[in-house]
Amino acid sequence: SCKKDNDSPKEYPSLKVVNQNNDSRSITSVSLVGYEFTNLSIAIGDSQTFTLDKGMPGGYIDINITVSHKYSAWSGAGSTKVNFNDGETTTITLKGCLAFEGCQGFYLEYNGLAQETEVTGRLPQGKI
Asked: What is the pLDDT of residues 38-88, one digit of tens each?
């Protein structure tokens, strides 16, 4: 018979979040459909990999990921769409710095490509 081997562990997609920004920001949360990873502290040069083992309610294609980052009183978030595959790791990287410091602002890179991201920056109460 050609039955699938049910003894092998189920393979889940994973999301790896890498912090390479130039502005002392640590990543504080990562969210996508069905998942909310909070109280994180991913420092610059570090990464964290999340196993998405509770199912993929939004499917595997064009899944919106939101990454929040913080430094002192400043916080912000960026989001981008990614694809997942079972047993594979999808990687996104937070890069950049504050726009008024003469760079392009914060952005998320997915599979080595800079994504058009909606990135916000704000003080704890109110807007910049």
From this structure: 999 999 999 999 999 999 999 999 999 999 999 988 889 989 999 999 999
Q: What angle do CA 21, 63, 11 make, to 5 degrees?
A: 95
Cβ atoms within 10 Å, residue 120:
15
Question: Measured between alpha carbons, how far is 70 from 27 in angstroms, rounded to an integer?
Answer: 7
Task: Using a cut of 0.90, tell me whether the model's pTM lies above it.
Answer: no
Residues with Cβ < 8 Å from 1, sequence gap 6 or more? none
Determine the Cα–Cα distance for residues 17 and 100; give it in Å rounded to an integer. 25
Sign (positive or negative) of CA dihedral 114, 26, 67, 31: positive
Task: Report the C-alpha gap between 110 and 93 in whole angstroms.
Answer: 7
CA distance readout (Å), 13 to 7, 78, 127: 19, 21, 36
